[in-house]
Amino acid sequence: MANQKKKLSISALLEILLVSTKLGLTSFGGPIAHLGYFHDEYVRRRKWVDEKSYADLVALCQFLPGPASSQVGIGIGVMRAGVIGGIVSFIGFTLPSIIALIIFALLLNNFGIGDTGWIQGLKIVAVVIVAHAILGMAKNLTPDLQRKTIALGAIVLTLLWQTAITQVAIILIAGFIGYLIYRKQTIDEKPNGVQFPISRRLGYLCLGLFFGLLIFLPLLREATTLNWVAMFDSFYRSGSLVFGGGHVVLPLLEREFVPTGWLSEEQFLAGYGAAQAVPGPLFTFAAYIGAVIGGWKGGLLATVAIFLPAFLLILGTLPFWDSLRQSSKVKGALMGINAAVVGILIAALYHPIWTSSILSTVDFAFAAILFSMLVFWKLPPWIIVLTGAIGGFVLTLF
Predict the structure, then answer these.
(1) Where does the chain cross the membrane (predicted)?
(2) Nearest alpha-carbon partner for 160 in 336, 343, 342
(3) pLDDT tops 50 at residue 244
(4) Residues with Cβ < 8 Å from 277, sequence gap 6 or more?
């Protein structure tokens, strides 16, 4: 009986790995598209989870900071084969893009980045991708005057107060304002009673570790001169504070690594453009940054650091989700935070993305073409990236 159970467990893990790797190789288009791929594969085709359970899991991951699509994948792996299943699901979904971006970073390090035309094209692609993300997020997350005002405040503070703690302070203030404004809203949802194979004790342990590292790592960074500690702290903090989707990690990572001299704006934006061309979660952009700074080992360290908060949060909150989702106060705070995220992203669109990418009327015209291809013609992101790189190179010939 024990051997049979072990075989079933190994078989389930192998199945999770194969299915998640297939998704990691084919899931283009960002987190919303990823959730569509997941639904088709896990709910409709394989019936690993039912519609209500999947909707419940997606709601939780939208509630938490971090990469929502990756957290949904982890949650499905947990539901299928426990914590190990969640880890295997994560590896399969993220490894293809991690490998691709580390290779891209190593090639740039070896051959030099310079001011080549195709790099300028990738920087213009970054403008287009972030602008598109902002349009969708603003429509969904700032529908009323109060939340539009919160977003405006976030824009102003982010642009005028450019320090390492700006985003943290803005998120905390916006959460408090959202709590004050929306804490009395009615909650229509009823708990689905979805059961996850995680004990509350493990949940408390993971949440304690999440907050403990958030507090302890900056102190350790100040007490040591080790570069890997500083890198781990920067990536962990960025992964802990991202509300609203993977694009929001851009300003957090830019503030951590560009002003401090870890990498140049050209390297940063070229990698961000390349990240749009690969499938899987945008958070794997961290693998590129880590590889530029410290080779393939730096890429792996950055990946672990930026995704660790997502792991700890999803494992820590799964046992408590039914009660959390019924709290109007929690939802009110989240509404304020999401509005502030829109403002932070708009500020990032202006600086550093726009100011370092749109340098002439030709650049603006090319950005308008790429934007139309993405938004109006609905072409996939990898085509936009390829067109941007080729177009940027061609423009240097004239």
Answers:
(1) 83-106, 118-138, 150-182, 202-223, 273-293, 300-321, 333-350, 382-397
(2) 343
(3) yes
(4) 381, 382, 385, 386
